[in-house]
Write a structure and sequence with these properties.
It is built from 22 helices and 16 strands. It is of the alpha/beta class. The strands form four sheets. The chain has a five-stranded mixed β-sheet with strand order 2-1-3-4-5, covered by helices on one side. A five-stranded mixed β-sheet has the order 13-12-16-14-15. A four-stranded parallel β-sheet has the order 8-7-6-9, with helices on both faces. A hairpin with a 5-residue loop joins strand 12 and strand 13. The chain binds flavin mononucleotide (FMN) and iron/sulfur cluster.
Length: 517
């Protein structure tokens, strides 16, 4: 009998040689007449161990990693029985990084063959959609409201309330748009789920369609994710053939189709209204709100626009009930959050956990500190528009409100770690520069203010008129914060002011500034 060997095909694993390992292993097995059944999976999200390969044994799966082409010959002898090898890691679920997680949304990622609909079903897939088919739209919406799920794209808006608005909105057709632009620095959860468990996103979108009366869905995927685009296209075709999409969704009388679209390559195209413009074939320019996309979105019709993780979290909520999901978390942050540990960390990867872990636990304990071995100095949470937190804020729990109270944000759950060699004045300058480069140009504070911001920070760093220029940066940040049309300009003050507030020594010995209120 052949041994079943699982090798990730996720972009992160491919980047460190998973394809070469798979090819070399298949060739060596053929040469030596060892029967192997190689299954390509997504990643478990333990990126420092990739390529991490697993073999099914009667006692469960056994993992090995990080595997190189050079390991293949010796590994071949060990693999069929999960035997000893210097790269043997034991049972993946016993590796502390995985053991400490609560995987609700990522339950199947790295385990199943992403394009096997049978595998998906065997691991609990489609139960949420089958439940939704038996419910009235209002009842589906109510279940999502009760779960406490909030948008994982950044703003944290309650998903169920958004769906209710679309359900009650007049106008046809209605659309479900999945935001897979994933532009935040250090984030990769959307990509991982699309490449590792695409049917869960399709299922979540189909449930959203049944809940709101939408008949067409789009997944807007950033152009830097060619593997996600390919996997999603294949998965949509398979789901359609199996009757989960098309004229009768899961045997119901309801129709729903999904189309995959590739993004245009601008950070601002992740902003929902600019994304809709881009989907309509126009330049990614932010729209003024109101009208909300829920009332007049894609092509002027009622539209749900949700992040990948928001939608992929829904099947588990429907399948196991709102209360099960709501029971995880703290305060108004319910359920689990796929946290992405990145930057200068020893153990980078995807860590799905209930809200409430402190930043210190995540960085020092789970991520194991820095890869360089130097002290952690700053952590940017929530993407390029998130604040830089110093060690003194490491007791902040991972929770929307707790981060807001400290002038920060959790955004899409990206945690980027810097050691003590970081120059925070350069990081502040970079934030302004990023805003200047990525600005859609529609409003003056962002378009002009960010360019002036770069100039003023340069003057501070050169020691020119420091006090006056520090006051000017604060003033500029307030103008950006209160005068910008969208959060690109509106949130740029977070990284800039947090750098100035928590790391004033990097800007010379001037007076300390208060964080932008
Ligand atoms: C400049 C900017 C970039 C954004 N980029 C993304 C993104 O890449 N992915 C995403 O899901 N949301 C992004 N958002 C948030 C979206 O505007 C929107 O809030 C989100 O798609 C709503 O889905 P959710 O409620 O499920 O989070 C961005 C917002 C701004 C202002
Ligand atoms: S804040 Fe910037 S990105 Fe947003 S609408 Fe204004 S110019 Fe465009």
């Amino acid at each position: 009998m052949s041994a079943r060997v699982f090798i990730p095909k996720d972009s992160g694993a491919l980047a460190v040689g998973a394809e070469e390992v798979a090819t070399a292993l298949a060739a060596a097995a053929k040469r030596k007449n060892v029967a192997l059944d190689i299954v390509r999976t997504g990643s478990r999200g333990l990126y420092w161990l990739e390529p991490m390969i697993e073999v099914a044994t009667p006692a469960g799966r056994i993992a090995y990693g990080p595997v190189t082409e050079g390991d293949v010959e010796t590994l071949l002898a060990a693999l069929p029985n999960g035997g000893p090898h210097p790269k043997r890691l034991g049972k993946p679920e016993d590796i502390p990084f995985l053991k400490r997680q609560t995987r609700l949304t990522f339950a199947r990622c790295g385990i199943v063959d992403p394009l096997s609909i049978d595998d998906y079903k065997a691991h609990g897939g489609w139960r949420g959609l089958e439940k939704a088919v038996s419910l009235k739209p209002e009842a589906i919406v109510e279940e999502v409201v009760q779960s406490g799920l909030r948008g994982r794209g950044g703003a944290g808006f309650p998903t169920g309330i958004k769906w209710r608005t679309v359900l009650q909105a007049k106008g046809e057709p209605k659309y479900i748009v999945c935001n897979a632009d994933e532009g935040d620095s250090g984030t990769f959860s959307d990509r991982m789920i699309m490449e590792g468990d695409p049917f869960v996103l399709i299922e979540g979108m189909a449930i959203a369609a049944l809940a709101t009366g939408a008949t067409k869905g789009y997944v807007y995927i950033r152009s830097e994710y060619p593997h996600s685009v390919a996997t999603m296209n294949e998965a949509v075709a398979i789901a359609r053939r199996a009757g989960y999409l098309g004229p009768k969704v899961a045997g119901s009388a309801r129709a729903f189709e999904i189309e995959i679209r590739m993004g245009a390559g601008a950070y601002v195209c992740g902003e929902e209204t600019s994304l809709l413009e881009s989907l309509e074939g126009k330049r990614g320019l932010v729209r003024a709100k109101p009208p909300l996309p829920a009332h007049q979105g894609l092509f002027g019709k009622p539209t749900v626009i949700n992040n990948v993780i928001s939608l992929a979290s829904v099947p588990a909520i429907l399948a196991d009930g709102a209360a099960h999901y709501r029971d995880f978390g703290m305060g108004r942050s319910r359920g689990t959050m796929p946290i992405q540990l990145a930057g200068n960390v020893k153990h980078g990867g995807l860590f799905e956990a209930a809200f409430g872990l402190t930043l210190g636990e995540l960085v020092d304990d789970i991520a194991g500190g820095t890869a360089t071995g130097r002290p952690v100095r700053a952590v940017q949470v929530g993407g390029p528009l998130g604040a830089y937190f110093p060690r003194s804020l490491f007791d902040t729990p991972f929770d929307y409100e707790a981060f807001t109270a400290k002038n920060g944000l959790i955004g899409h759950g990206g945690v980027v770690v810097f050691d003590d060699t970081v120059d925070m004045a350069r990081q502040a300058r970079f934030a302004m520069e990023f805003c200047a480069i990525e600005s859609c140009g529609k409003c003056t504070p962002c378009r002009i203010g960010s360019t002036r911001g770069v100039e003023v920070i340069d003057r501070i760093v050169r020691g020119e008129n420091r006090e006056a220029n520090l006051a000017l940066v604060k003033d500029l940040c307030n103008t950006l914060k209160f005068g910008s049309l969208c959060a690109l300009g509106g949130f740029t003050p977070f990284p800039v002011m947090s750098a100035l507030t928590h790391f004033p020594e990097d800007f010379g010995a001037g007076p300390r500034l208060a964080a932008a209120e």
